[in-house]
From TrEMBL:
Residues 18-101 form the Ig-like domain. This is OBSCN protein. It is found in: Cytoplasm. Pfam families: I-set. The gene is Obscn_2. Keywords: Cytoplasm, Disulfide bond, Phosphoprotein. InterPro entries: Ig-like_dom (IPR007110), Ig-like_dom_sf (IPR036179), Ig-like_fold (IPR013783), Ig_I-set (IPR013098), Obscurin/Obscurin-like_Reg (IPR052385). GO terms for cellular component: cytoplasm. It comes from the Eukaryota. It comes from Certhia familiaris (Eurasian treecreeper). Its main location: cytoplasm. The keyword Phosphoprotein applies.
Length: 101
């Protein structure tokens, strides 16, 4: 705001968060039934953008079978006690970027 006493003008600053990119992609994992499996991605920056994990086409949430962690730029998915039904594609998406294993 600029105020000269009898006149005043105001402007605003608006910021857009730059898009995060995936700098460390998912890697394929082979394991035994009943074991836990960990998938990790690393982003170019910490972001408030929504990041989402998928098993096949099904979006995942943290629960007793799936643990989703975010530590700075590192995003992790732990699938607990996997079964043969868990075989398939795991993907991670943030903004316009995605990685799959």
């Amino acid at each position: 705001t600029c105020d000269t006493g009898d006149q005043q003008t105001t402007a605003a600053v608006h910021l857009k968060e730059p898009a995060a990119t995936i700098v460390e992609r998912l890697k394929d994992v082979a394991t035994y039934e009943g074991e836990d499996v960990v998938f990790e991605c690393r982003l170019s920056r910490e972001t408030a953008q929504d990041a989402q994990w998928f098993l096949g086409d099904v979006p995942l949430q943290s629960n007793e079978m799936n643990e989703i962690r975010v530590q700075g730029t590192r995003h992790s998915l732990i699938l607990r006690k996997v079964t043969l039904e868990d075989c398939g594609s795991v993907s991670f998406k943030v903004g316009q970027h995605s990685s799959a294993a």
